[in-house]
């Protein structure tokens, strides 16, 4: 499936079944909300009706579940607008130590044959910036 995902000021092209790479900075102890727009192969906004989105943040790829944060990942209404919003609360980001982390974002949907299709659309590194004021 080909498409495009764009962030605040960047456009990220999605290749066939390949996640796109994007670096993100997060301020420790701050609320975070990141919205991406998805587009289909024709350049139209991707219809995300009946899709579910999941996103995780880990210190590294082999971190266990105790070192994993789940983003609150939603497809806002209307789902035909192709938007995905990922968020973390200030309480969640306050638990993160400064440094680099990895993340990914997956879309799940059930095809016409009843199979669950998982598509990783975005992945990359997160730089957590330390907080002076606590």
Highlighted features:
134 residues, mainly beta, Immunoglobulin-like, six-stranded mixed β-sheet, five-stranded antiparallel β-sheet, 11 strands, elongated, disordered N terminus
Tell me, rounded to a whole number, the average pLDDT.
86
Question: What class, by secondary structure content?
Answer: mainly beta
- Which regions have little confidence, pLDDT < 50, spanning 5+ residues? 1-16
* DSSP E strands, number: 11
Q: Find the CATH superfamily.
A: Immunoglobulins
Oligomer: single chain
CATH architecture: Sandwich
The percent of residues in helical segments reads under 10%
Radius of gyration: 15 Å
Total number of domains = 1
CATH class placement: Mainly Beta
User: With helices defined by DSSP (H or I, 4 residues minimum), what is the helix count?
Assistant: 1
Query: What fraction strand?
Result: over 45%
Q: Could you give a short account of the major beta sheet?
A: 6 strands, mixed
N-to-C SSE series? EEEEEEEEEHEE
Q: Tell the overall outline.
A: elongated
Outline the structure in words.
It contains 1 helix and 11 strands; from the N terminus they run βββββββββαββ. It is 4% helix and 51% strand. It has 134 residues and is mostly beta strands. The chain starts with a strand and ends in a 5-residue tail after the last strand. 19% of the residues are buried. The radius of gyration is 15 Å and the shape is elongated. Strands 3, 4, 6, 7, 10 and 11 form a 6-stranded mixed β-sheet that branches. Strand 10 (99-110) and strand 11 (116-129) form a beta hairpin. It has one domain: Immunoglobulins (Immunoglobulin-like), CATH 2.60.40.10.
């Amino acid at each position: 499936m080909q498409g495009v995902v764009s962030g605040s000021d960047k456009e990220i092209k999605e290749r066939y079944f390949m996640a796109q790479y994007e670096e993100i900075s997060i301020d420790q102890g701050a609320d975070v909300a990141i919205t991406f727009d998805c587009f289909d192969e024709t350049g139209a906004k991707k219809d995300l009706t009946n899709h579910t989105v999941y996103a995780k943040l880990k210190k590294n790829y082999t971190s266990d579940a105790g070192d994993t944060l789940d983003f609150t990942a939603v497809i806002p209404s209307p789902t035909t607008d192709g938007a995905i919003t990922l968020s973390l609360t200030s309480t969640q980001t306050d638990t993160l130590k400064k440094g680099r982390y990895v993340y990914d974002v997956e879309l799940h949907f059930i095809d016409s044959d009843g199979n669950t299709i998982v598509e990783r659309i975005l992945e990359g590194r997160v730089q957590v910036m330390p907080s002076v004021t606590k």
